[in-house]
Each structure stands twice: as C-alpha cells, then as structure tokens.
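A reminder from the course coordinator: this example appears on the midterm review sheet, so study it carefully.

Given structure:
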C-alpha cells in the first residue's frame, strides 16, 4: 500500500515524515474499516426491515449490551488515538539540544534566515542532511506560517513572539516551503527553497552562498537576484515607476536626490543604494527601501550592478 501513501502525501524528507505518515495511514485505514463496517450493515438493515404491508414490527427497541459496546469501544479507540498522537506531538514540539539553530524572520512577503555564524539568506535556506535543525521564528508584521510539506512541519510565525519547529532531514535535494497563513496580496509568492545538502555541500554554500552564481553571466545572475531577493516587488526594469524607481537607463545618468543635489549613478552609488538605501534618497520617492546589508553576497551585488548596467 506504499503507492497509496505516496499518492496521498508528499515525499518523505524527514524522520517525522515516516512517523506522521504512519499515524495518518493508520487513521485512514481505521476510517475505511469503520466506514464499510457501518454503511454495509446499515444498507442491509434498511433493506431487510423496509416497510412491507402487513409485516409485524418487533417490539424490542432496546439492547443494553449493544449500546454499551458501541459507546465504550469508540471511546477507547479515541483515547488510544489521542495518546498515539500525543507521543508524536511531544517529540515534534521539543527540539533536541544539539540541533543547529536557524533564526527565521517572516515579513510581507519574504523569509529571511540567519545562521549561527551570522550568514543570512533570503527565501532560501540550506541545512545539512541527517542533522537536527531548529527554526526559531518570528514575524515583523502579520501572522505567517512556516510550512515544509516534505518535512511534515508547520508552525505559525507570530509578531512579538517566538515559535519554533525542528526536524532531521533525511533526503538531500531541493524542497519547498510556503507560507500557510493568508497574509495579504503577496501571500502566494511567499515561498522559500529548503535545500538539504550533504555536509560538504553545506560547508561550500556557507562560504560563498553556493556555486550557483558561477553558472551564469553576471548580468543574468543579477536578474536572478532581482527576482529572488525581492527587488522586483519595488523596481521595474521596463522604465515604469513602481514603489521604487525603474532601473532602465539609470546607469551613467545624473540622479536627482530629495535634498536637491544630483549624483552620478555609478558602481559605488549602486552599491551604496543597496547597503544604505537611506543615505541618498531619489527625488520623488519615499525612503522605504530596506537595507540589504548582510543579505547580498559580493557575487550577488556584482551581478545586480552588471544587470542594472545592461538595462540601457
Ligand atoms: C520595499 C521596496 C524596495 C525593495 C524591496 C527594493 N528597493 Fe531599491 N529602492 C526603493 C525605493 C523607494 C527607492 C528610491 C528611494 C531611495 O533612493 O531610497 C530605491 C532605490 C534604489 C536604487 C537607486 C535607484 C536610482 O534610481 O537611483 C537602487 C540601485 C536600488 N534601489 C536597488 C535595489 C536592489 C538591488 C534591491 C534588491 C536587492 C532593491 N533595491 C529592493 C525601494 C525598494
Ligand atoms: Cu505570509
């Protein structure tokens, strides 16, 4: 019946997945048995004791043994199911002490992850395989929910409070996580990639943010960053104004600032605009851009600059 489980549930990516699926399938089969156990006799009785003119109705309407049985047995069953679930829940809710800790900050509409060494990443998190990892989560705006289907973990992420979730990934590869609590217009875009790496790949990723950037020419890498790091929610590249200025044709031009002065848009200005966006604010725009200090690796910043240069 493995095919049925695989058809009904996502792939199993953690130790929890096996245990939770076992409980799930147990309850599923119990429901199947009870469904037929009730519906088949019920249909039979409905037919057997249907109205027939002249049939004598039996006078017995009460059977104590039967009534005690059908009350006590389901009660025992429910109590059993409760403890079965409780044992799993206790394990699920208390992380082992040796678990690596990753801080998660949810924000409309992105996920920021911070590792023990201070490395940060946006909408992408890497964890080493077969090591327990604990996510300590909070939100800076509204209620979100961190959900990684393959790991069978799901937990609300709440402003002004920390919640946590943990799991031990058992299968390497790319998994998805989504926000599972409706949080506004960009909710359905609020996804992060969860990469389960071998220890060697994980170490490599921590050093450079991965080797992915080497596969692309810088301007293409920059375009990927524009999408991935959320720049595209405020910056268009086709010349139209969004929450922030369009990037089309800005490189090399004199930009008018809100303090009346002008500045040449060169590499240093672009770099400063990403790391200290409020240092120079473009005329006609609000200073709402968040700082990307610590969120952009050197290769990502280089890519973005190359990308902006290419938009002429
Ligand atoms: C929440 C919206 C928002 C996001 C997200 C955002 N920006 Fe901005 N950005 C702005 C606004 C508004 C301005 C203009 C005001 C200012 O200069 O601070 C701006 C200005 C800039 C400028 C200067 C543009 C010019 O015409 O002089 C650059 C460069 C820039 N952003 C790069 C980025 C990059 C790179 C990212 C993604 C890593 C990004 N921004 C993400 C809102 C945003
Ligand atoms: Cu959300």
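Designed residues:
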């Amino acid at each position: 019946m493995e095919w049925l489980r695989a058809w009904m549930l996502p792939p199993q990516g953690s130790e929890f997945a096996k245990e939770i699926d076992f409980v799930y399938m147990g309850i599923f089969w119990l429901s199947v048995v009870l469904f037929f156990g009730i519906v088949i006799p019920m249909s039979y009785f409905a037919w057997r004791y249907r109205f027939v003119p002249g049939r004598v109705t039996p006078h017995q309407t009460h059977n104590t043994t039967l009534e005690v049985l059908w009350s006590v047995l389901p009660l025992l069953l429910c109590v059993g199911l409760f403890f079965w679930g409780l044992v799993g829940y206790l394990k699920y809710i208390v992380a082992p002490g040796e678990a690596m800790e990753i801080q998660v900050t949810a924000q409309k509409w992105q996920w920021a992850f911070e590792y023990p060494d201070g490395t940060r990443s946006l909408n992408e998190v890497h964890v080493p395989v077969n090591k327990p990892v604990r996510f300590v989560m909070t939100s800076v705006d509204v209620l979100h929910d961190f959900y990684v289907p393959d790991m069978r973990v799901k937990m609300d992420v709440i402003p002004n409070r920390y919640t946590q979730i943990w799991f031990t990934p058992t299968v390497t590869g790319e998994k998805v996580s989504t926000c599972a609590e409706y949080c506004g217009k960009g909710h359905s875009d609020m996804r992060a990639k969860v990469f389960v790496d071998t220890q060697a790949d994980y170490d490599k990723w921590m050093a450079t943010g991965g080797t992915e950037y080497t596969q692309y020419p810088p301007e293409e890498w920059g375009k990927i960053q524009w999408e991935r790091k959320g720049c595209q929610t405020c910056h268009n590249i086709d010349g139209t104004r969004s929450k922030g200025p369009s990037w089309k044709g800005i490189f090399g031009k004199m930009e008018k600032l809100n303090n009346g002065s002008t500045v040449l848009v060169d590499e240093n200005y672009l770099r400063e605009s990403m790391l200290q966006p409020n240092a120079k604010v473009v005329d006609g725009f609000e200073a709402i851009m968040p700082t990307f200090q610590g969120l952009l690796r050197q290769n990502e910043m280089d890519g973005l600059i190359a990308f902006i240069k290419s938009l002429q």
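The first helix runs from residue 2 to 8. The mean pLDDT is 91.
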